[in-house]
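Ops channel
N.P.: pipeline sanity check, posting one input/output pair.
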């Protein structure tokens, strides 16, 4: 999943992220085959009864700690979305989650965003309150391609990203958790308080991987990881290194014992991963949605000495600005993606025809270039990232013509010239 010419990632049936082409590593030889340290995890607790798992199933050669049973994850994936359900009798709540990109036919701007959403739906099916924590851990892959990695891991910074709607919702709730967490030196929050927030009002709910001070190669850039802030949620974070035994032990002890992370900023080389934890207590029968956004930003793409750039860099200065745009418009994106997939799936045409049309759209993301000037081109093939060759264009002219006809017409005009 991904956006038009932004690069792609794949979320697989075992819960792992694979085939990552997010760092301008567009050719098959440069793609990262696996992000071994990126994962989702949940903890559900009532008293001393604790359920804790990474939302991954066993796979040869991969981390084995805290995994689900081999059949513990039901999975369905059709571009640009994957839907999963935890299948485990030991889990005291019902957990489903979806991962999708805002790939919306005829909406050229939404479809050009380099981000994916992760949305948990948790329902407390037990007869007692349950403390539910969801973690998204993202590996620091800035500057990496297959076979190449920077000498030192770039830093991971903590930030606050709150949308106007989230802030307005909090301003109208002046009880309990809101009063405690959104409190300034001037007293309780007034109902008409300005949208600005002050240091200490809100705990960080976003991590920014790398700065943009020095961009030397095409792969250099940023990642953003954000969870939607809510006045009823406790959000914590940790920057850590799963390859360091002490760091890994501290991470899992924190999460297992408290359902929260230590708000550890990292340092000392421990910036291999950044994690956000979103925790809340659910009453019996209560349902809650927990959202995360992963965004990427690699603005330079130099070919033959010319910086073609990426189209998405025109409207956003960094990865967190892209993630915030996703949060602001998330409801529209989700509804739009669901609507076009539903319409295509209910046309009456055989599924054997419909599914290849859906899946062929992936080529528009990972095997294409959308430059800073707005030019769009399809590659000849995954191993040959050249564009605008009419004879050998990749098998994707049909979905481009169906869903983004302006880009197809402009491409053919350039070829004709």
């Amino acid at each position: 999943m991904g956006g038009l010419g932004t690069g792609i990632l794949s979320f697989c049936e075992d819960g792992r992220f694979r085939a990552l082409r997010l760092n301008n590593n567009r050719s098959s030889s440069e793609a990262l085959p696996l992000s071994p340290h990126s994962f989702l995890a949940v903890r559900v607790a009532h008293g001393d009864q604790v359920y804790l798992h990474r939302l991954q199933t066993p796979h040869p050669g991969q981390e084995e700690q805290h995994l689900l049973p081999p059949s513990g994850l039901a999975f369905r994936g059709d571009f640009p979305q994957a839907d999963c359900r935890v299948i485990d009798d030991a889990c005291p709540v019902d957990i489903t989650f979806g991962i999708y990109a805002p790939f919306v036919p005829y909406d050229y701007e939404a479809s050009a965003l380099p981000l994916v959403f992760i949305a948990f739906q948790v329902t407390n099916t037990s007869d007692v309150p349950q403390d539910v924590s969801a973690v998204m851990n993202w590996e620091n892959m800035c500057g990496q391609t297959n076979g190449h990695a920077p000498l030192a891991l770039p830093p991971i910074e903590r930030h606050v990203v709150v949308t106007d709607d989230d802030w307005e919702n909090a301003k109208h709730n002046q009880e309990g958790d809101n009063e405690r967490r959104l409190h300034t030196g001037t007293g309780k929050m007034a109902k008409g308080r300005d949208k600005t927030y002050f240091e200490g009002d809100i705990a960080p709910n976003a991590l920014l991987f790398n700065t943009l001070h020095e961009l030397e190669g095409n792969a250099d850039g940023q990642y953003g990881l954000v969870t939607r802030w809510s006045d009823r949620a406790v959000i914590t974070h940790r920057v850590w290194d799963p390859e360091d035994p002490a760091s890994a032990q501290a991470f899992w002890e924190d999460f297992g014992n408290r359902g929260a992370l230590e708000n550890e900023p990292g340092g000392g080389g421990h910036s291999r991963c950044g994690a956000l934890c979103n925790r809340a207590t659910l009453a019996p029968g209560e349902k809650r949605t927990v959202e995360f956004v992963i965004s990427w930003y690699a603005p330079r793409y130099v070919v033959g000495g010319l910086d073609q750039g990426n189209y998405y860099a025109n409207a956003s200065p960094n990865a967190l600005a892209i993630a915030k745009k996703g949060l602001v418009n998330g409801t529209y994106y989700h509804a739009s993606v669901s609507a076009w997939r539903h319409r295509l799936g209910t046309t009456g045409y055989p599924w054997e025809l419909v599914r290849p049309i859906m899946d062929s759209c992936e080529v528009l993301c990972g095997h294409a270039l959308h430059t800073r000037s707005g030019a769009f081109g399809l590659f000849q093939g995954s191993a040959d990232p050249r564009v605008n060759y009419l004879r050998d264009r990749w098998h994707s002219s049909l979905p481009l013509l169906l869903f983004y006809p302006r880009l197809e017409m402009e491409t053919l005009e350039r070829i004709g010239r």
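N.P.: looks fine end to end. The CA atoms of residues 71 and 87 lie 7 Å apart.
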